[in-house]
Amino acid sequence: MSETDRISGKLRWSKLYTFSCLRPNVLETDGLHSLQGPGFSRVVYCNQPRVHRKKPLKYPSNYISTTKYNIITFLPKAIFEQFRRVANLYFLMAAILSLTPVAPFSAVSMIAPLAFVVGLSMAKEALEDWRRFMQDMKVNSRKVSIHKGDGTFGYKPWQKIRVGDVVKVEKDQFFPADLLLLSSSYDDGICYVETMNLDGETNLKVKRSLEVTLPLDGDVAFKDFTGKIRCEDPNPNLYTFVGNLEYDRQVYALDTNQILLRDSKLRNTAYVYGVVIFTGHDSKVMQNSTKSPSKRSTIERKMDYIIYFLFTLLVLISLISSIGFAVKTKFEMPEWWYLQPQNTTDLYDPTRPGLSGIFHLVTALILYGYLIPISLYVSIEVVKVLQATFINQDLHMYDEETGNPAQARTSNLNEELGQVDTILSDKTGTLTCNQMDFLKCSIAGVSYGVGSSEVEIAAKKQMAFDLSGHNSEIYSASMQNSRAQDSLENSGSDFGKSEIELETVITSKDEKYQKPMIKGFSFVDRRLMDGNWLKDPNVDAILLFFRILALCHTAIPEPNEETGSFNYEAESPDEGAFLVAAREFGFEFCGRTQTKVFIRERYPSSGHPVEREFKILSLLDFSSKRKRMSVIVQDEGGQILLLCKGADSIIFDRLSKNGRMHEESTSRHLNEYAEAGLRTLAFAYRKLEESEYSVWNSEFIKAKTTIGPDREAMLEHVSDMIEKDLILVGATAVEDKLQKGVPQCIDKLAQAGLKIWVLTGDKMETAINIGFSCSLLRQGMKQICITTVNTDLLAQDAKKAVKENVLMQLTNASQMINLEKDPHAAFALVIDGKTLSYALEEDMKHQFLSLAVNCASVICCRVSPKQKAMVTRLVKEGSGKTTLAIGDGANDVGMIQEADIGVGISGVEGMQAVMASDFSIAQFRFLERLLVVHGHWCYKRIAQMICYFFYKNIVFGLTLFYFEAYTGFSGQSVYDDWFMLLFNVILTSLPVISLGVFEQDVSSEVCLQFPALYQQGQRNMFFDWYRIFGWMANGLYSSLIIFFFNLNIFYDQAFRSEGQTADMAAVGATMFTCIIWAVNFQIAFTMSHFTWIQHLFVWGSICTWYIFLLLYGMSSPIISRNAFQILVEALAPAPIYWLVTLLVTIACNVPYLAYLSFQRSFNPMDHHIIQEIKYYKKDVEDQHMWKRECSKARQETKIGFTARVDAKIRQLRGKLQKKYPSLGVQNVIPPS
Amino acid sequence: MVIPNFARYVKSRSDRQLLHGLKYNKTSTCKPEESNNGLPIVPCGLIAWSLFNDTYTFARGMVELKVSRKNIAWKSDRNHKFGKHVYPFNFQNGTLIGGGKLDPSLSLSDQEDLIVWMRTAALPSFRKLYGRIEEDLEAEEVILVNLTNNYNTYSFGGKKTLVLSTSSWLGGKNDFLGIAYIAVGSSCIFISFVFMLLHVKNPR
């Protein structure tokens, strides 16, 4: 154990932490909970797991299972699940009816495909469940140190843990179950817990054991440890715990501070001992797990309507058929002596035609069931799983840094990715990487730091764009308007060039960072670095500033062997950045004991560092309510100082009269920093007299030891008393770094016609800054800020007044947008959470939505997780468009589950968002590829696949119906049962699956180059009713051609030179051959991307049919019946058979080909043109033209940096002399 | 109009019995023509029961025209589907007499009329091969046909037609095939011509 560990091991943090962990030690028995009645029945005998082996104290083991089934329940449960689907139930009923004499075909031809389909779906279920099982096994077999008796500990897998076990959890391990904290490596039983997996919060939380269990701090101490815990029953509430501990004949109360929850992680603490209270599924996190709602894609929902339509059609033709049958039975059948109408069953009873008709209706429903393809569902499932594999395997979406690939967690939303209209994005961790860089500071009214933030880089970028835009403008002006087209094209090519320039700008910036690269520190200013600050006139203020940086925090230093300096375990990334900054400035925080902080101060003059110690008297820690933290320290000279850092508004309120010297300049700097997209904090201090402190401290201690609900309030009040009359020192600016490629990605997505909303919990200024750095906002864009004014009126009135005010702002803004004449004017809506709560109310939300839809970008700040979900729902339901929510933290879970598609960033902030999401990606920038490439492809694939599926089944099903009319509606089919069985299952399934899996209209590079192609999905061009009915009409036409051509050719004439006439088997087989050829040719024409797999499947299907017919004909005549040797003997030698096949195949496909030619010649779609350009390799020969096409294929967009360029070009072209106000922030609503 | 493709009719047969004869006795598919007086019927079922039994003889002038009634059924049917040692049994013995009778001394595989008849046609109006005239007939020649009208079509108003036809490599005379080919082909040519014109007129 190293020295620092020992030092930190000695720390008694309870002296420091005021709010979160200090509990009065006396009077502990007073707070006892009376644990009576239901809900509080749990009894845990500590260190006596044996007691819990038998009833009534037998609790579940720590084995967890998230699987849906087990080996025994799988079959019944999975079958039940399958038949809850309406379509499957229909097929099941058809299969059951096929066992009765009503059935038109043999039972096996109905049952076999159903069994196949259901079996395949069940296999998929089983596979997914198996994966879950493996995941569980991985968790269950994690090892933890467990007390084996006699004070010895040994490692055991998690699943072996029982209630009552004493476990020892080491640093950075997860807690295996819900534990009662007994003691930790710290003397006072403190430990740090990271609850990222539970609530997504990255800061560490402090837990503290009871005083009485503190002596249990070694393995041996547990030899004779016993105790009894009575507590609440398992429940999902993460933030409450009620229980008592009976120990040493005394009873102590327990609360959440002593409870370590499963799936949270031990941090900054060497080890803890704990007693297991809740195991496995009893633990709070498991009780909390909810299944994400099952989502269905738009296409699938629309498919249901097609199914209903086809079902109506089915019932209709069945009715026609059964009425026809009843009529025939009544009037004609008695005359058909050859049927012996007098000796019949109910099915064909001429005396009771009604009954026969009803029986026949059932027959017909089964017979024409081919209209509703049984295999459609299973084919779609197969296709989607394979598509998801492609997404998972895509190397372009693999993040090398974290090793996370993209993952389609549910495969049933693939095609929805191609239809997204609005993206709702979280900010922190999604657009930004939650890594803080100390960039600038303002000390005593002087701003330091010359490094530029990403926003400033973005501004530089824009300058580069402007320049290029200007150039092209001059060029086109010189060429006059005669070649206006060319100017556009030039701007395009210039855009390309400037993009390259920018790339270099960006890379050079990266290089610059890489050389001195210190994580969390990008500060560059010679005035402060290398001890130069000593020459500064404000040297005292600077010294104080540095000391605040180094002292005002709760971090722990960890020596880093490689560099010889320290790493800091901080509660928040900002704090870490401050400590790194302090270290770089020469104030290295190097140690912390119980009451002291050690700072190694380095002055260039003295040469070697001076170690100073500061006595920490009190620590008033940070909470989101207080928005500040303070330490009270005593330096070596005995001077007591209160050092405070906090949000600028809070600090400015607490300044003393003479502490406001630099307020004006500092707040100006703060604004500048905020504009540059930086996070700011203000620093202040106060000198305290010994007496003043001791008076206050007695108050403070009194407050600390108070018990009861008003303790918090009292503490806050006492803190307020000391945190006043501060003197402002300065401010810091920390950069929240944007993730890689975010602005480029947003630009591309905007070009693809997507709207992007940012929903963030951050404050408005930060959000706007990020908006600028992502190019969601730009100069010249009219910002509509909707905020509420703070009114001091009574609650009821205030609410009403505020609401009216918000409404007025909304109406004004809408009017302004409506009055706007300039088609290029862009608006941005910025709204904060408080206002949003009014705007989301029932009576106002539609106004809000219509305003938001008219704005190019929308930024919602200070929104709660619930509001995020509400906004998502509003957009989803209000606009009826597809929404995609992307986020990374637990606070985004609501939004992710609410949106049509939820995307989780599998980054640093825990797995909560990923677990709730439908897709997970490692970086925001992969969203571009996920949507523009995979979404586009999957949408087209599924759309075409479903259309084709209905087409082929209509072709097949209707021929059955036509034939019916010729058989007196008796329910006879012209095809052999086996043909029908194989049609959907084997003969036509593989080509359509290959279409669904491999089809690509254009390659992925082209998709990315032409983001406007994405709009084909947004506009749903491939699955609108015209297209669906077009395909159905095509199916109708083909069925007519196939049936009547065959009929007319075969019905009476001999088809062989020997004079044999065609019987039903021969006609059926020929007709079936025609269908196979026609539908397979159709799919070959539909495909635009061929690999050997498509060729194999399409042509292979046709071959398979002949091979099947051959083999079937070779089987015993008992099996093959009339198809016995049909190919070899009857069909193949007959030239007419081949001639008919050729004729019908061509006739069926001519209209589609004509339509294709017509469309390509006169009404080409974007991808048609690109395909042709690519096919003729024009893109290589004629770069010029290719570039022009590239630039034309963009959606008119008002956000993204391309829009910035366009705006600039327009600005120049219009020869506007007026200079735009800097940043163009126009608060259109005067603050009332 | 006979509806030979009526589902009840089509199913009323037993392929196993045709092959194995009396050895096979699960002939429930043959209902209602399954058994008579407690004895099974071979061949059972409505199809066989309603066997077509008109006969025709042809004469050219006074000379009888030879009509070959052999090899009118598929070879595979004769060899593999209709038993060589299966003889008609208890056939057309009931109170209801349907169509023709069979010679009980001839095995089913030799009863080619039956074999042809057992191949049910696809449509209500159909042709079956009766026999082949293997001599050349001259144009304008008069053929006398002597037919015995046994088969009852009056009850349901059916028509019977005797067709003398030549057969080519394509089988019988098939106008529709030719017309369809011409129609589809010409429409293809027409469409391609139109598109060619349009393409020349306004190329992209």
UniProtKB/TrEMBL annotation, chain A:
Pfam families: Cation_ATPase, PhoLip_ATPase_C, PhoLip_ATPase_N. This is Phospholipid-transporting ATPase. Belongs to the cation transport ATPase (P-type) (TC 3.A.3) family. Type IV subfamily. The keyword Iron-sulfur does not apply. It is found in: Membrane. It comes from the Eukaryota. One of its GO terms (cellular component) is plasma membrane.
Automatic annotation (TrEMBL), chain B:
Coiled coil: none annotated. Keywords: Membrane, Transmembrane, Transmembrane helix. It is found in: Membrane. It comes from the Eukaryota. InterPro entries: CDC50/LEM3_fam (IPR005045). One of its GO terms (cellular component) is Golgi apparatus. The chain crosses the membrane at residues 176-198. Belongs to the CDC50/LEM3 family. This is ALA-interacting subunit. It comes from Tetracentron sinense.
